[in-house]
Every structure is written in C-alpha cells, then in structure tokens.
Design goal:
ABC transporter transmembrane region fold, Rossmann fold, 3 domains, 4-stranded antiparallel β-sheet, 10 strands
Length: 583
C-alpha cells in the first residue's frame, strides 16, 4: 500500500512540510493561554491579556490555513493514487486472456473496479496524512505535557493501552465486516447485471419466473442488509468509546490536580490546569483519530486484498521480453499450426484441441466445419492469441505468434464473430473502433460493401443513431452487417469469420457474400461455416470433430471420402430441400 505513494514523492514531501508547520503552530496556543491567565488575568495586566489573546487568534488562524493546505494536498495525492489504481486495475484486466473472463462474473469485476476501489478512497486520501499529523501532534503534545507536569501526564496516558487494544479489536471486526459486505455486494451486483441487462430481462420475461428471481434477490439483499447493520453497530461502538475517553480522562485529571493543590503543591496553578487541559485535549483528539484510522485501515485491508488479488493475478498471455515488432506491411499471411493442443482448464486432462496441424497459405480461404463443440472457434482464437496453446506452436509467416508483440499481432487479425457485440453508442463510434481516424468516405464505403449503408441512410440520425445496449435497437442481421463493415474498415491481412452470415436472411446473405469474396482477396481467411454452401470454393476445408482434424481437402475431395463432411453436407442439403418443399 505504501508503494502506491512512490510516484508522488515531490507532492508528498511538500505535504509533510505543511504538516510539520501546522503541528508546530498548533502547540503555541495552550502556552499562550497559560501566560494569559497566570501573568495577565491573575496579575491584572491588560497588556499581557491583549497581546496573548491576539497571538492566540493569529496563530490559530495560521494553523487552520496550514491544516486546510495539507488537507488539500492529501486529497489531491489520494485522488491521483485512486486514478492510478483504477487505471492499473482496468489495464491489467484488459490484458487478461479470455480464460480469466470465462471464469469470472462481470458483476464481481465491476464491484472490485468501482466499489472496492471507491471504498479505499478515504484511506488513500486522508489516512496517510492524518496518521502523520496525528502522530506528530500526539508526540509533541506529550512532550509539552511532561514539561508542564509529569504526574498529570502519567495519569492522562495511563488508559491509552486499553483503548489501543479496544481499537485493535474493533479494527479486526471491521475487517471481517468489510470483507463480508463487499463479497455480498459483489453477489448482488452480479445478480443485477445478469438479470437487469437486456438479455437477462428478456430471459426472465420469456420463462415467466420473475417471482422466483425476485425472491432470490430478496434473500441476497437481506444478507447485505445484515452486514450493513453490523457495520452501523460497529460505528456506534467506536463513537461510544470516543465519548468515554473524552469524558473520563479529563475528570480524572481534574481530580488529581485538585488533590495535589489541596496538599499545597504550588506548581498547580489555574493557568497550568487550563493549559494542561487544552494540551491534553490536543493530544487526545489525535489519539482518537489514530484509533479511528486504525479501525478504518484494518477494515480497508479487506478491500485492498480484493483489489490486489486481481492485480496480482498473473497474465497467461503476455509479450515475451524479446518480442518482435510486426509491421503490417510485412505480413504475408501464412498461418501454420504444428501439432497444437489446448485445454480450457490446464490442470485437467481433457483436451479441447489435440494434434492440430495444417498450413494456410497467403490469400487462401480455410473453412472449418464440424458439429457444435468440436473446437472450431477455439482454434481460431489461438491465431490472435486470445488464448495460447498448451502444446505445439501457431506460426505467422514462420514465426511463433508468442514471439511477436501482442498488440501488433491483434492489429493484423480481424474477426467477425457469431455473437456480434456493439457498444451502447452511435453507429459511427461502433465503426470507428476498428479505425479511429477513418474518414466519412471510408465509413460509407465499408458500409456499402457490407450491404448496410442503405439502412443506415434511412435512419433519422444516420450514422449518429444510438444502437442501444448491446445493439438491441437493431436486428440480428443489421448488427452482423455492421460488424462486417467494421472488419472491412480494419482491412486486416488475416480475417476470421465465425458464422459471419449466420444471422442474415437469404437476401442479405447473398448481398454480403459477394462483398466478403471481394474482402477475402489477397488475405488469409478462416471461415467457420454453418451453411456449407458458403464455403464450397474454399481452398482448404478442415473437418473437426472432438478437437481433432479428422478430414481435410477441397469440397469435391471430401464428398468423395464419404466421411464427416459428406454427412454434414448431405444432412444440410436434405434439410434445406425439405424446407424449400414445405414452403
């Protein structure tokens, strides 16, 4: 946690100087008060009273100004650290492979990035400077109190160890409560994200089980309320302890001072007692502040652990130290798989892909066919390193893709996936993701090539039309054509089409297929095809079953083998024929 302050050393030093000045100024008023009473009021010297009254006011105002200054400096440093932490966490999560996201719920990620980071804001913004200033005030006030009267000081500090122990106990309890609260908040956020998204709401309405979902939410919500009740009780316990300290200790000091005065101790004067009481309060308020910080800090450790758990999660897909740059102009597009194997769960014995070997020449169309779950999509994910293989190698132009810079590699690979994802913004912004500096003419050309421009032009706001959450304001075919336009705009040397025309009607598919044929010219293309009619002219067809390539060749060759491909083709041809007859 202290390492978070390292990039802000200069600002930290400036703040420490302000703290030192503020603490020094704060020590003066009690001494002025003692002089004002003993040498002014007690001796009827109006000049002394006036002088030290003015000095007390001036020094108090200066101390308040300096306190405001280092409070501002502390908040600025804290907010910069918060910004850095959010950036680091977001960047780290962005660099994780798909394996991480398939294992982790979106609601949990959002809770840690927003709620957990926000929960440590007070610690980062205030705790460090408050701890420094409070320690400095306590130490300096303790020294001054000893100098005034060591006997009163001994009584004043005698109960501190007990309160420190009680603060530690409260802090440990706060840590337990904070951990439970955030975990339950994460659970609730996950439920809301899953059930209140467009897809979740649609599922809830179509299955007619809204009452069941509401009851489940009520159970989890009740658990969160229980944790928040414990948190509130903890706060009352802490502030009750503070009241005990501020009321019992001064009463004991007054009793001891009275007892000493009655015994004839000449050092116990009215001015000394007032000054000592002021100094004691100056020490005890920071002490209670330190106890509060102790509770806050120990409670926040649970949040820091959750944040650092993500930051410390190793990336399984990273650049090697000697990773090579991959200029776009140098890419030929030859993709080679050498005995590739892959597991979704490395610790298990079950292979998703096994013994995959083939070579796609530059400009070739390689079609992947096979039953659902055979591993076709997973195979294509290994090319841009969304995953890394657990065995064998994937090469681009003869170089292992793990030896290339990840950013460069993913820049030269374009994908149109079966599940089209559009962000909740305008059509223009969704397209510009592929090429931020694209001109209007380029946008229009890409959309025309994807047979979507006429539809966009018919909309009232054209390219400025907001597509809605996950693009739900558009039909499935319209979303997919925008995704194809995005790939056309990126113009990558290597293209992956994962059921790219699956959401299109026959007319749209016919319009786009011609555009795709043009787009595929001069680039290596991998097409996962449900409709086998779209890949009849493929240069290489790989029939995949149970994670293995069981057949390879061109369409006519595979039909002649009368194997998996022939069976899939004949079944689809029969279904389509029956559908046509039914119509």
């Amino acid at each position: 946690m202290f390492g978070l302050y390292a990039p802000h050393k200069a600002e930290l030093i400036a703040m420490l100087v302000s703290v030192a000045v503020g603490v020094g100024l704060g020590l003066a008023p009690p001494f002025f008060l003692q002089i004002l009473i003993d040498q002014g009021i007690q001796k009827n010297d109006l000049g002394v009273v006036t002088l030290y009254s003015i000095l007390t006011i001036v020094v108090t105002l200066l101390a308040a100004a300096v306190t405001l200054l280092y409070g501002y400096q502390s908040v600025v440093i804290g907010q910069k650290i918060m910004r850095d932490m959010r950036n680091d966490l977001f960047t780290h999560l962005q660099s994780m492979s798909l394996r991480f996201f398939t294992r982790t719920r979106t609601g949990d990620i959002q809770t840690r990035l927003i709620s957990d980071v926000g929960g440590v804001q007070n610690v980062l913004s205030n705790t460090f400077v408050d701890a420094l200033s409070n320690v400095a005030i306590v130490v300096s006030a303790f020294v001054a109190m000893v100098w005034m009267d060591w006997r009163l000081t001994l009584l004043a500090v005698g109960l501190i160890p007990f309160f420190a122990w009680f603060g530690k106990w409260l802090g440990d309890f706060a840590q337990h409560i904070r951990q439970g609260t955030q975990e339950q908040t994460s659970e609730l956020n996950s439920m809301m994200q899953e059930n209140l998204s467009v897809s979740g709401a649609l599922l809830g309405k179509t299955i007619g089980r809204a009452d069941v979902l509401a009851k489940k939410f009520d159970v989890e919500n009740q658990k969160l309320a229980g944790w928040l009740i414990k948190s509130s009780v903890l706060q009352y316990a802490f502030f009750g302890m503070i009241r005990v300290i501020t009321q019992i200790v001064p009463a004991l000091i007054y009793w001891l001072a009275g007892w000493l005065a009655f015994r004839g101790d000449q050092n116990i004067t009215v001015g000394l007692l007032v000054a000592f009481s002021a100094m004691q309060m100056r020490m005890f308020f920071p002490l209670t502040g330190l106890m509060s910080l102790q509770v806050e800090l120990l409670g926040s450790l649970a949040l820091f652990r959750r944040i650092f758990e993500y930051l410390d999660t190793p990336r399984d897909v990273t650049d090697r130290p000697d990773a090579k740059a991959l200029p776009r102009s140098s890419v030929q597009g030859r993709v080679t798989f050498e005995d590739v194997g892959f597991k979704y769960e490395p610790e298990n014995d079950e292979w998703t892909l096994s013994g995959i070997s083939f070579e796609a020449q530059p400009g070739q169309l390689v079609a992947l066919v096979g039953p659902s779950g055979a591993g076709k999509t997973t195979l294509t994910y290994l090319i841009p390193r969304l995953y890394d293989p657990d065995a064998g190698r994937v090469l681009l132009d003869g170089t292992d893709v793990r030896d290339l810079r990840l950013e460069d590699l993913q820049r030269v690979v374009g994908m149109v996936t079966q599940e089209t994802y559009l962000i909740h913004t305008t059509i223009r912004e969704n397209l510009l993701i592929a090429k931020p500096d694209a001109s209007d003419d380029e946008l229009v050309a890409a959309c025309k090539a994807a047979a979507i421009y006429d539809h966009i032009a018919s909309l009232d706001e054209g390219f400025e039309t907001v597509v809605g959450e996950r693009g739900y304001k558009l039909s499935g075919g319209e979303k997919q054509r925008i995704a194809i336009a995005r790939a056309i705009l990126k113009n990558p040397p290597i293209l992956i089409l994962d059921e790219a025309t699956s959401a299109l009607d026959t007319t749209s598919e016919r319009l786009i297929q011609q555009s795709l044929n043009t787009l595929m010219q001069g680039r290596t293309t991998f097409a996962i095809a449900h409709r086998l009619s779209t890949i009849l002219s493929a240069d290489l067809i790989l029939a995949i079953d149970d994670g293995r390539v069981v057949e390879r060749g061109r369409h006519a060759e595979l039909l002649a083998q009368n194997g998996l491909y022939a069976r899939l083709y004949n079944e689809q041809f029969r279904v389509e024929s029956e559908g046509a007859l039914g119509e």
